[in-house]
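re the bet — no i am not wrong, look at it urself. input seq straight from the record:
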Amino acid sequence: MGFLSYMLCAILVVSSLVHGDPLVPAFCIFGDSVVDAGNNNNLPTLIKANFLPYGRDFVMQEPTGRFCNGKLAADFTAEFLGFGSYPPAYLSEVAKGRNILSGVNFASAASGYYDNTAQLYQTMTLSQQLENYKEWQRNMVNLVGTDKANDTFSRGIHLLSAGTSDFIQNYYINPILNIVYTTEQFSNKLMNYYSSFIQNLYHLGARRIGVTSLPPTGCLPAAITLFGLGSNQCVARLNQDAVSFNNKLNATSQNLKARLPGLKLVVFDIYNPLMDMIEKPTDSGFFDARKACCGTGTIETSFLCNERSIGTCSNATQYLFWDGFHPSEAANQRLAQSLLQQGFDLIS
């Protein structure tokens, strides 16, 4: 993104904050644990984060179900867009009445493009998230009328984060998958699901969609522990798979834009900003990029990251990762700044 676009983006954000109006009418979120704001709290799954130390640095220092010590990158993005509150988790008691007018969070930790990934962990599949979105649309029509609702659907931003769980929590550990499919074949399968999801959103009236790339999955603390064969270094094979997937994601997205008139579809590069922080943590103000804050910092996530986890750091701002899979609030803030810069087309 050039300097001029960056300045225009900054001017739009400042203008929205001054006038008290968000840049877009709604912000809807789909995907996995990187963006789940608490939907899994209400599901019969072990993949939850509604207990301390999760949320210890969030508003009121209370856990909400976010897989972080504080705010997610999506929370910072909502702030940057000028919203006075965060999109409520769809399954929460809060997601009712006028609270849903400016968008809802449908994401579910351990979900992925491949519905079988979520089914393994008894969480919400992306297909179910889409059905919930349809129900939200019907509720919106009832609340504000067809014309205003349709305007909200078309001008609102839709953010999708998926793919990491498909690889880390399914393909790499599932012999049924990794024997039947090569990595390339599996990523092609995921691309088909991604393409269908975007087309379904488009046919429901969505026109501004952002999708995050895979991060450097081989550098996640838990991935190094699980797949690093005793090494303390990033797992090159996993990172190569992520780069290959991201190349396909970009190509598929370009194809979708060419075929769907009026679609604004932005692929947010998470890989390179996060890799920069991993390779040069001190340049971004971090003390540690290998060890996560929670527990031993090597594998803990979800129920393994709890108040009794021995060794949990006292100051998460020094750590790039909060638990074995998820960035800290400080890292999420930096990632959100990068998303804002890359997503100018979605708000212009």
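see?? The mean pLDDT is 94. told u. also The longest helix spans residues 236-259. so pay up
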